[in-house]
Amino acid sequence: MRLNLDIQVFFDKGYKYLVERGLEPREAKIQSERLLCHHLGVSKQEIGKTPILLSDFSEKTYLSLLAKRVSGFPLQYIEGTADFMDFSFRINEQVLIPRPETENLVEVIVQRLNKRKTEPLEFLDLGTGSGCILLSLLKYFDQSNGLGVDSSEEALEIANKNTIQLQLENRAQLLKSCWFESVELKKFDVIVSNPPYIADQEWDSLAKEVRQEPRQALLAGNTGLECYEKIIQRALSFLKPNGMIFFEVGWKQASDVKRLLEAANFKQIEIILDDCRIERIVKATN
């Protein structure tokens, strides 16, 4: 072991490694620091104040993490966590990485239901994945309960860990189900879903990092609309009077999802832009 080695040396090595392999300098700086902090199990704030013992093996491990990152493996999967709505969620390769546009989805629901914050609302999250949507909503609507369903047992294991981490075991339930298939027929105030919405033939055109995420959470048949169709066909049976459904949608899908909702006799259908001014959310009322 070498005592109190200059951490800056390792930051610099990581930075140079990433820049030489094509990362932008700003991203290389951020990611080399984050990977070293992850490897040492300390925060950026701690690493500058705490004496660090580093062996030659730990240097090799750090370089292997850098190589994994350069290969296209997402930083969040390496770290095992992702930030979402001011919370830290555990994730792995069995669940999607939470994204800013999905934060927009949660923010829209919070805005639309803000006046009902103190009511005991019932939420249903279809395709819950890590649980980030449902659990974030329950942290805000602190008198409410929710059910998160997913067809993946592995995803539900991650969602359960996040439920415990956020101390929501008493208000959040998880269920293995393909959409409504195993859900008890009851009425919810809100149904929310960020379902798979990428057409199968688009897989090879996706960014290398995106293709590291679970295919079953991304791909949705020939048109990319199949999951919306399945959900919308049965959603009215699970909504209370004046209950609302919210979808995240893919590029140029909003109008198609709106038509599906109209055909199913939903009312007050809206298309809502995300922070990038893209049609990203579709909302409708029973």
List the SSEs and their pairings.
Blueprint: E1 2-3, H1 7-20, H2 25-40, H3 44-47, E2 53-54, H4 56-70, H5 75-79, E3 81-84, E4 87-90, H6 100-112, E5 122-126, H7 132-140, E6 145-150, H8 153-165, E7 172-176, E8 188-193, H9 226-235, E9 239-248, H10 254-263, E10 267-273, E11 279-285
Parallel strand pairs: 5-6, 5-8, 6-7, 8-9
Antiparallel strand pairs: 1-2, 3-4, 9-11, 10-11
Task: Describe the protein in words.
- The strands form three sheets. Strands 7-6-5-8-9-11-10 form a seven-stranded mixed sheet, with helices on both faces. Strands 1-2 form a two-stranded antiparallel sheet.
- The chain is built from ten helices and eleven strands.
- The longest helix is centred in the first third of the chain and has 16 residues, at 25-40.
- The protein has two domains: 2-71, Orthogonal Bundle (Helicase, Ruva Protein, domain 3); 85-285, Rossmann fold (3-Layer(aba) Sandwich).
- The N and C termini lie far apart (65 Å).
- It is 38% helix and 20% strand.
- The mean pLDDT is 92.
- The radius of gyration is 21 Å and the shape is globular.
- Helix 1 (7-20) packs across helix 2 (25-40), helix 1 runs parallel beside helix 4 (56-70) and helix 2 (25-40) crosses helix 4.
- The protein has 286 residues and is an alpha/beta fold.
